[in-house]
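Why predict the complex rather than its parts? Because the way molecules touch one another can change local conformation, and only a joint prediction can capture that. The input here totals 305 residues.
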Amino acid sequence: MTAREEAVEQLRIIRRVMERATIFRALSGETALIGGAAALAAAWLSEGRHGWAWASWWLGGLAMVLAFNVFQIFRMKAAHNRPFWSSGLRVAIRGALPSLIAGGFLGLLFVRSGAEKPAACLWILHYGLALLAIREFAPKSMVWLGWAFVVFGVGGLSGVTGVVDLFAQWASRTNGSQLMAIAFGGFHMIYGALIVTTATREESAA
Amino acid sequence: MIDFSQLDKTIHEKGRLSIMTLLASRADSWAFQDLKFQLDMSDGNLITHLRTLEKFDFISGEKLSDGGRPQTLYTLTPAGRQAFIAYLSVLEKILDLGK
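Output of the joint prediction:
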């Protein structure tokens, strides 16, 4: 092996270690499947409701899925004899929290005035932005999931506000529950199914 | 002429290079269990490498036992960070010479 080849090999080790150290899957495949199923159930239960009665089903579902995700992370850490409060988790929370707080607050403002569709679009959009905020140390699949939410959220908002005619016609035939079901239900189910069936490819370092 | 004789032999070993890389990747300290998980090393192997790096003052270990289980947290020392940067610099020069 020449000096150059050995230098390349050493740099390859450094790169591999760096990549492994920084990848953090904040959302496991199992949590995504549970979240997707919970979203579909919340969509069914909230259908035809308005204002806080509509939002309470979604907030209840969110609390349930968050609790499950915390349990999942705790279980994985315990299995590997690692502390729960890792730097990966701290960085993920720090990155995602601003978008989640801003989106949650804006959505609730619209819920207060009984406008579920824009509320749903804002929650979808900001959830996607939160996933993209941690893209530098997230697996590629989570980045794709983030983009799906952002594109759907922006498309939905442009339809709900009547900015784009094509989307406006489609948005007029939907309601907040259906928009939430497509994004939080459908996207999470697809993501969860892909992760669970291809688990070894993007091993979680959480 | 740049060659491997100018590389720090303490860092050059693959296990120790991996440890130094992990410690350099974050400002936070690393718990022994986290290092073990990331590097997939046995306890004995990891301890041997950590002791070698400590002996050369490249890393420092701090034992904590408040509350839960006792654990040792490792961080890169300023000397270790400087040595790691110098090591990368020599690797870069070797690659540049081959162009």
